[in-house]
Amino acid sequence: MDYWNHKVPLLASRAFSSSARQLRNKVPEAQKLFQADNGLPVHIKGGTGDVLLYRATMTLTIGGTCYSVYWLLVASMPQKKA
C-alpha cells in the first residue's frame, strides 16, 4: 500500500514537470495559411489531404443519403401478396 502512495505523486510530478521539452506553437503559421486571400475555399487551403478528405466526406454523405432514400422508398411500397 505504501508503494503506490509513494510512487503516484512522483509520477504525477514528472508528467507535469517544467523540464519537459517545449512544443513549438504552430498556430500562427496555420492562421497565415488559412487567412490568406488567395481565392480558395477554406476546406481546400490545407492542400491535397484536405481536398481528399473533403471529397471522401461529400461522397459518403451523398451516398448515404441516396441509400437512405432508396430504403425509404422500398419501405413505402406495398408488399406483394404471394
UniProtKB/TrEMBL annotation:
One of its GO terms (biological process) is regulation of oxidative phosphorylation. It is a single-pass membrane protein. The chain crosses the membrane at residues 52-73. Keywords: Membrane, Mitochondrion, Mitochondrion inner membrane, Oxidoreductase, Transit peptide, Transmembrane, Transmembrane helix. CDD domains: Cyt_c_Oxidase_VIIa. GO terms for molecular function: oxidoreductase activity. It comes from Amphiprion percula. SUPFAM superfamilies: Mitochondrial cytochrome c oxidase subunit VIIa (SSF81419). The keyword Transit peptide applies. It is found in: Mitochondrion inner membrane. Belongs to the cytochrome c oxidase VIIa family. Pathway: Energy metabolism; oxidative phosphorylation. This is Cytochrome c oxidase subunit 7A1, mitochondrial. One of its GO terms (cellular component) is mitochondrial inner membrane.
